[in-house]
Amino acid sequence: MPSRRSPVLRAIRLRLPAVPAGARLPLVCAAALLLVACAGAPTRHASLPRTPGKPMIDPSAGLEEISIQAMSLVGTPYRYGGNTPDSGFDCSGLVRYVVARAADVNLPRTTEAMGTRGSALDRSEVASGDLVFFNTTGRANSHVGIYVGQNRFVHAPSTGGTVRLEDMGKPYWASRYNGARRVVAAVNQPLPVQPASPVPTPVPPAAPPDPVPAVDDDPIAAFANK
């Protein structure tokens, strides 16, 4: 009668060394279990490379850095014509220095010229890092500061003072507010292109005026900061 042993057991029997009959059964069972365990081991698959996700973008990037840089200069002495921390700052010198350092944007030196750069903002659109302008001398945009959030701005007020954090809600500033402009776009988006100014017609030089004593570019009334 043909043998009914499985091919696995027949193969094991052929490969077993000569051992006493009583010891063969345990060896056969152990070998069979070993073969079944090896055959059933899971196959490992090589892991696929992960595709990096898109970087997160902060919609205020570029603007927050301006306000942080401005806050770091609070306490720097005011100096008419000053444009560095070592020499001191006037209002436009402070703004020009901060925006150049924090956003690599080169602004004009005067507040009047700064008021033509970037894009105008409604009051509800003003965010940290935007420029805020005031009329402190009877002419528009005679004073400028950097908005830092919570209705406050950093500016260099007047001779004898220092760079300071100011509340725009004070009656003095609220009544003289001229508007705000964004000279650095969030997420480095391009700002609206300003139309080119017409080239002025050259005029012959006029006789130099009589010298006048130097005055602040943004004199502030003494009560403004009380």
Automatic annotation (TrEMBL):
Residues covered by the NlpC/P60 domain: 60-184
Molecular function GO terms recorded: cysteine-type peptidase activity
Keywords: Hydrolase, Protease, Thiol protease
GO biological process: proteolysis
Spans annotated as Disordered: 192-226
Pfam families the record matches: NLPC_P60
Biased composition (Pro residues): 192-212
Protein family per UniProt: Belongs to the peptidase C40 family.
Cited PANTHER family: MUREIN DD-ENDOPEPTIDASE MEPH-RELATED
Protein name (database record): NLP/P60
Species, as recorded: Cupriavidus pinatubonensis (strain JMP 134 / LMG 1197) (Cupriavidus necator (strain JMP 134))
Lineage: Bacteria, Pseudomonadati, Pseudomonadota, Betaproteobacteria, Burkholderiales
